[in-house]
Amino acid sequence: MAQHEHVRVAVIGSGFGGLGAAVRLRREGITDFVVLERADSVGGTWRDNSYPGCACDVPSHLYSFSFAPNPEWPRTFSGQEHIRAYLEHVADTFGLRPHLRLGHEVTLMRWDREELRWAIETADGASFTADFVVSATGPLSDPKTPDIPGLADFPGKVFHSARWDHDADLTGKRVAVIGTGASAIQIVPAIQPKVAGLALFQRTPPWVMPRMDRKISGAERRLHRALPVTGAARRGLLWGIRELQVSAFTKHPGELGLVERIAKANMAKAIKDPALRAKLTPSYRIGCKRILLSSTYYPALAEPNVDVITSGLAEVRGSTLVASDGTETEVDAIIFGTGFHVTDMPIAERVVGAEGITLAESWKDGMQALRGASAAGFPNFMTVIGPNTGLGNSSMVLMIESQLNYMADYLRQLNVLGGRVALDARTSAVGAWDRRIQARMKRTVWNTGGCNSWYLDANGRNTTVWPGTTAEFRKVTRSVDLSEYEVVRIPKRAAAPAKAVAEEVVG
C-alpha cells in the first residue's frame, strides 16, 4: 500500500540548503517535517560531483554553517569528499536522520486551494501533504548536456562531470573535455597525466586566478578545537575580505584591472607559447563570468598531450569530434563539463500553484521571487537559493543562512495569524523587488563585462546573482513584511438549505 503522510513542513533536497532548513526547523521547535531526497544519501551537489580533483573554490572555514563550525578542515580549500563528510556529520549531529526520506524523488507538487496545503507525489509511489514547502533543490543539481548531432552513435564512454562514470578507465585513452568552467579546470589537471591525449573544447577562455591552497596544520586544528573563538575569527576575516570586494563587481568594474593582471601573470608563469597564451586570454572583463581558481590548470594545458581547440563541439561522426571551426579530433571518451540547468530548473516544471500553472510557466519570461524566496501564486512555498541569490565572490552558505532566517519568520507569521492560513506573495511586491534588482544589475560586471554567461537567462536577464553584499541580503531577509503578501484562508462553504439536507437524509 502506498505511503501517505501529512507534515507541517516538507523540505525538498538534502544539500546545504535542505539540511540547513531542517536544522533551523528543529531549532524553531518544529519537528513535524520531512526532507525528501531523490538520491540514497545526503549531500546535494557535493554528493553528485565526485569527479577527479573536485574541490570548493571558497575557503573551508567560510564554506560551512555558522552554527556548525568544523575545526577539522584538512585544507584551506576543501575537497569534495571532506565537504560531503561534513554534511553527513551535520545530519547526524542535529538528529536529522529520522526526518530524511531517501529515494523519494518529487514528481509533482500541487497547491490545494480548498485545504490550503501542498499535495506531493514521489517517484516511489509515496505521497505527502504539507502546510508549507521549502524547495532546496539548488541550481547546480541537474546537469546540462548539449544536443550534439551524432552523439548517440559515439562508440566510447560519454558522461557529464556531475555524473562521473567511475567504471571508465581513462588511462592511455584519447579524451575530449567539453567546456572550460569550474568543473573542467579541475578535471583537466587531474586526468591529464594518465591519458594519451586530451582535447579541450573551449568556446570562451575563463579567467583563472592562482589557488592559494595548503594543508591546515595540526597546530591550527588543535587551536580551533580548544578555542572555538579562533575559528570564528578566521571565518570573520575571510568574510570581511570578500565583503570589501563586492563594490568592484557591482558598482566599479573598472577597478578589476589589477585582478586581471594577476590572472595574466598566473597564465604567463605556466604558458610560454605565445600562440597558446593568445588562445587562453579572455576578451571580456574579469568577473563577468565566474572567476576560477587553479594553480594546476595552465601547467596541464602546456603539456604535449593536450590540445586546446578554440571552438565548441558541433558534431560527432563515429569516434570523430567535429568542432564549429571544422577541426576534427579522434577520441575514445567524451566528458561534458557544460554546467547545469540554472535559469530553467527542472523542479519548476513539477510545482503547480494556486492558479493551476506550473512555476516554470510562471517564470517563462524569467525567474522572479520576492527576496529570492516567494513567487506570486505559490502560497506557503519558498525557494532556498532562489532567483538573484547567487554570489560571484563569496560563500553561498551565508546566503542560505539568511534565507533560513526568512523561512523561520515566515512560519512564525503563520502561527501568529492562526488557524489554517497561507501567505501568497503579491504580484506587485514581486515585481517591485525584481525591478530594484534589475536596476542595480545594469552597472555590474556581470551585465557590462562583455560576456555571455550562465548568470543570464534566455532573454538576457541576470536572474541568478545578488547585486550586493551578504550583509545587505541578511538585512533584507531578516523578517517577513506582511504588506508584501496576501493572507489566504479557507473559503467559507455555504450551508446547504435545510430542505435539501432533509431530503438527502430521507433518501
UniProtKB/TrEMBL annotation:
InterPro entries xref list: FAD-bind_Monooxygenase_sf (IPR051209), FAD/NAD-bd_sf (IPR036188), Flavin_mOase-like (IPR020946)
Single Gene Ontology MF annotation: N,N-dimethylaniline monooxygenase activity
Cofactor annotation: FAD
Lyase among keywords: no
Superkingdom of the organism of origin: Bacteria
SUPFAM superfamilies hit by this protein: FAD/NAD(P)-binding domain (SSF51905)
Pfam families: FMO-like
Keywords: FAD, Flavoprotein, Monooxygenase, NADP, Oxidoreductase
Family indicated by similarity: Belongs to the FAD-binding monooxygenase family.
Free-text function comment from the UniProt entry: Catalyzes a Baeyer-Villiger oxidation reaction, i.e. the insertion of an oxygen atom into a carbon-carbon bond adjacent to a carbonyl, which converts ketones to esters or lactones using NADPH and/or NADH as an electron donor. Thus, can convert bicyclo[3.2.0]hept-2-en-6-one into the oxidative lactone products 2-oxabicyclo[3.3.0]oct-6-en-3-one and 3-oxabicyclo[3.3.0]oct-6-en-2-one. Is also able to catalyze the sulfoxidation of methyl phenyl sulfide (thioanisole).
Designated name of the protein: Baeyer-Villiger monooxygenase
Organism: Streptomyces atratus
